[in-house]
Amino acid sequence: MYKTINFINRKWNSSVFFFHDLATKTNINFLVKFSIWAHDRMIWQLPERLQLIGGVPVYQLRLERELEIAKHQAEYWNSYAGELQEQVFNMLEEEEKQEEPELATVNG
């Protein structure tokens, strides 16, 4: 049912666009004005819950995209946290190496 509605919607809108293109190519003043009016008034936009892209509802595609973005952000922040943790460990090792020679000269 949704596929049929989307097909009719697509064909209707493409016929309105086609009429507008023909009118602008002929450059007849009243046809151009009428085609602009028709383009503005007669375009039929389906509610989002009925819109399909490749047979898949738009809201489902939007949710999948949000999940992909969230996954990417989680991976980015996880990687960033790992890099910061590695830098902290390197700093601690450098401090320990600097303290060891000082202790050797004090004891020696």
Task: Give me the secondary-structure topology.
Layout: H1 2-26, H2 29-42, E1 52-53, E2 56-57, H3 58-107
Antiparallel strand pairs: 1-2
Helix pairs in contact: 1-2
Topology pattern, helix = H, strand = E: HHEEH
Task: Enumerate the strands of the largest sheet in spatial order, edge to edge or round the barrel.
Answer: 1-2
Strand content range? under 5%
End-to-end CA span: 89 Å
Helix content: over 70%
Q: For the report, how would you describe the main beta sheet?
A: 2 strands, antiparallel
Poorly predicted regions are none
The number of helices is 3
Give the mean pLDDT.
86
Kindly state the number of beta strands.
Answer: 2
What is the gyration radius calculated from CA atoms?
Answer: 32 Å
Shape descriptor: elongated
**How many distinct folded domains?**
2
Tell me the structural class. Answer: mainly alpha
Offer a concise description of the structure.
This protein is mostly helical.
How does this model look, in words?
- It contains 3 helices and 2 strands; from the N terminus they run H-H-E-E-H.
- The chain has 108 residues and is mostly helical.
- It folds into 2 domains: 1-46; 57-108.
- A two-stranded antiparallel ribbon has the order 1-2.
- The longest helix is centred in the last third of the chain and has 50 residues, at 58-107.
